[in-house]
Amino acid sequence: MSELTVAAIQTAPVFGDLTGNLEAALALVPPGCDLAVLPELCTTGYQFVSREEALSLAEPVPDGPACRRLLAFAAERKVTLVAGLAELARDGGDGARCYNSAVLCRPDGTWALYRKVHLFWDEKLWFAPGDLGFPVFRACGTTVGVMICFDWIFPEAARSLALAGAAVICHPSNLVLPHCPDAMITRCLENRVHAITANRVGTESRTDQPLRFIGQSQIVSPRGEVLAACAGAGAGAAVARIDPAATDKRVTPRNDLFADRRPESYHL
Amino acid sequence: MSELTVAAIQTAPVFGDLTGNLEAALALVPPGCDLAVLPELCTTGYQFVSREEALSLAEPVPDGPACRRLLAFAAERKVTLVAGLAELARDGGDGARCYNSAVLCRPDGTWALYRKVHLFWDEKLWFAPGDLGFPVFRACGTTVGVMICFDWIFPEAARSLALAGAAVICHPSNLVLPHCPDAMITRCLENRVHAITANRVGTESRTDQPLRFIGQSQIVSPRGEVLAACAGAGAGAAVARIDPAATDKRVTPRNDLFADRRPESYHL
Fold first, then answer.
1. What is the CATH number of the domain that holds B179?
2. A103 with A67: CB under 8 angstroms?
3. What local confidence, expressed as pLDDT, does residue A93 receive?
4. If we measure between CA atoms, which residue out of B146, B152, B53, B57 comes closest to residue B101?
5. What domain count does chain B have?
């Protein structure tokens, strides 16, 4: 397997400007990039005020305009994209529901979907909890897993992806708490995977609980090295070359982090 | 529940000086301390060269001299001690075996035992893998769990202890890799527990693979704050006051880190 150029795209979206936000994000994808991760809810912005508002801004996958645009961009630029968006889904019975999702779009026009498992704070009012577990996908010659933002605090999320074979964890985010960048180093070390955390910047004050997003998008190696990172303010991109095959779980001649797990000793 | 004074005792042991090493460690336990954690293998030192050597330096629990001395000190000073030592155990059939253990000694003369589950590198040659799982113990008015050194890299260790009710994780260590101090902050955040990592300093060169131990003993709060820490060189103690009841798993009005776990979504 050859090396990949990967990017974490850091954006400063304007709430509700679906087309403008997506075009601004795509404009930051560097030429020659193989895999680019865009933030959580990168088209809509974050701070919904009602379930109706979330539903009105959500789009079906893959037939909505955002997903169609992502697939077209992926094909044109031969890049795999992972982007967070509000997904509108029809269920069998009671009508529409909304997921905090991320869509993976390949250059060949195929796509895959992750729906955020661990919802943060008021997201529980607008979104249904993810019902697809933590699947992994083949993309750009490697195996990719997706988790979204607050999933970071549950070690089971990255662990599930890594045990299922993910070499690269794509992590669209809208982080407001300070701890995640450091914690993702632990996630990479304990699982020997790469992680690409794409976060946003800026503030939203659509309720009486203003939110400030911390930026600090980053790419971390399986050895816990921060290969590239953005600052805490400003849109931009963190770009790095990675070898996706470099996820050997052996940390000493006698220790393999996966073979050494002892599930019979755990109560989880 | 009232506050506790807790300490991480950082030592510079001399290989094989069982009595001297233990007395030097106990001399660092501060007056009025409620709970003190001593390093992994704090009596023997770390770098054994054969299984026979490990067996010759190991002691039974609780009848060996180290455990008897720990119990006497605990009673005299009204402190709960958690100390790593090489445990000599008789099994039913093939004679003696050795565990990399930690013994918890209460002021009332009772004790409890943890045997290291995840053995590091050549420890696999001298020690049997721990066969007691990750139990938790009542001590000094709270619930305490124990893990040893390399257990840190397996998120299942701290998770198992926290899910079983541990409010304070006692973590005797002989760390040589640089990542653990930061990773323990993640462990505390993701589980909302306190952690007391007691590490050693110095070097051992008893084989052609010299080891340098990194010190940096620390006490971390459930919010990921480093409450006290030692430097990377020198014996000493990190001491802090903690409220062991302050382990609320709620991180927002709608998020409880344990109730929000979704085991049906994990494959572990």
1. 3.60.110.10
2. yes
3. 67
4. B146
5. 1
Q: How many CB atoms lie within 10 A of CB A27?
A: 10
* Angle, CA of A175, A178 and A184, to the nearest 5°: 75
Which of B33, B42, B98, B116 is the catalytic position?
B116
- What residues of chain B score a pLDDT lower than 70? 1, 91-94
Output the six-digit token pair for B150.
């390399």
Angle at CA A213, nearest 5°, toward A9 and A102? 50
Q: Order of strands across the sheet with A111-115?
A: A111-115, A96-105, A80-90, A35-37, A4-10, A236-242
| Structural domain for B22, as ranges | 4-265
B118, B179, B252 member nearest A189 (Cβ) = B179
Residue of B125, B156, B220 to mutate, testing the A interface (most A Cβ within 10 Å of its Cβ): B156
| ipTM exceeding cut-off 0.90 for this assembly | yes
Which of B211, B255, B265, B268 is most worth mutating to test chain A (most A CB atoms within 10 A of its CB)? B265
3-state secondary structure of B72: helix
- Percentage of residues in chain A with pLDDT exceeding 70? 98
Question: Which residue in chain A has the smallest CA separation from B136?
Answer: A267
Phi, psi for residue A183 in degrees, rounded to 5:
-65, -30
B116 among known catalytic residues: yes
Instruction: Report the alpha-carbon distance of residue A33 to residue A221 in Å, rounded.
Output: 17
